[in-house]
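Lecture notes, continued. The same structure-token format from the folding unit now serves as the input rather than the output. Read the line below as a description of shape only.
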């Protein structure tokens, strides 16, 4: 069994493991990385881009080095290689937790319990829940499902196909660092600059693949492509724009508009505003189902691409 086949079996098993098991409530490897990154930050923090770049290099580089060492250790044993790829894939993808949180909020909204939905929303995204009514919460959930389909599933699979286990761990490390220090708070505006920019670069291919697959797997492929072409470039994020626009067009809804983060109000452009309708509570489950289909298609595409490239290289 070649290395590409071991990775293919392992990635499929890891994604299946996430579908069945989800994330553990305690002892998650990503949480352990977060604690280590926070410890490094306490040592290195200065209000300077250079120190932030060093923090990014130490943490992301360390994750890649651990993955490379583990992959090299099991390389002579195909079964162990597949098991390592499965464990790494399970550790870095988060599709089941994403779906679970979104559906929990959706059920609260369906029951008319807006307060419960508000209380749960911070588990999914950073919006200010008290500023949102039921429709606003539903829209926030659909937008978060779209963006995190790329960040929590497709992007990891893309970099796993490119770099194997080091690629999987490296992508998740970069994405986690962006969540920790990449936001524009006074403390991290300069220190987190490198993490934010590296996350933009690492997320670029996964976001485009997510947008393509949302068009392929969604109920309105033409609408998804139209919204992507017309509106994605207007979004402030170079990666969330294509993904959210494609999901909006595929689902036939409007996303974007005014939102609030940490007391800061943003007026974002409306995505798919010319043909889409307002998000409804039932769209939460539709978005989750589309996210699931996109994740499964991404596994097939990335594994096939890895085997094709590796086969040509022989």
């Amino acid at each position: 069994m070649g290395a590409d086949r071991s990775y293919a079996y392992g990635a499929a098993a890891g994604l299946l493991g996430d579908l069945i098991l989800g994330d553990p409530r305690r002892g998650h490897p990503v949480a352990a990385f977060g604690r280590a990154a926070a410890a490094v930050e306490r040592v290195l923090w200065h209000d300077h881009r250079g120190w932030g770049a060093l923090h990014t290099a130490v943490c992301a580089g360390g994750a890649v080095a651990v993955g490379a060492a583990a992959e090299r250790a099991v390389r002579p044993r195909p079964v162990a290689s597949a098991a390592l790829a499965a464990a790494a894939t399970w550790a870095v993808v988060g599709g089941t937790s994403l779906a679970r949180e979104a559906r929990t909020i959706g059920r609260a909204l369906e029951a008319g319990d807006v307060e419960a939905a508000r209380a749960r929303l911070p588990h999914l995204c950073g919006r200010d829940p008290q500023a949102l009514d039921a429709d606003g919460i539903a829209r926030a959930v659909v937008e978060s499902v779209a963006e995190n389909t790329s960040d929590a599933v497709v992007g990891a699979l893309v970099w796993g196909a490119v770099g194997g286990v080091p690629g999987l761990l490296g992508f998740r490390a970069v994405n986690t660092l962006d969540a920790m220090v990449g936001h524009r708070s006074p403390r991290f505006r300069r220190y987190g600059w490198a993490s934010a920019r590296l996350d933009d670069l690492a997320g670029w291919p996964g976001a485009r693949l997510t947008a393509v697959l949302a068009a392929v797997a969604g109920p309105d492929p033409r609408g998804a492509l139209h919204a992507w072409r017309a509106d994605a470039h207007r979004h402030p994020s170079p990666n969330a724009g294509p993904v959210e626009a494609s999901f909006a067009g595929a689902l036939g809804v409007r996303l974007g508009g005014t939102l609030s983060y940490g007391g800061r109000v943003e007026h974002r452009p409306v995505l798919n505003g010319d043909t889409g309708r307002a998000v409804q509570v039932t769209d939460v489950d539709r978005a989750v189902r589309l996210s699931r289909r996109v994740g499964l298609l991404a596994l097939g595409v990335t594994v096939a691409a890895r085997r094709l490239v590796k086969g040509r290289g022989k």
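Point for the exam: The two ends are 15 Å apart (CA to CA).
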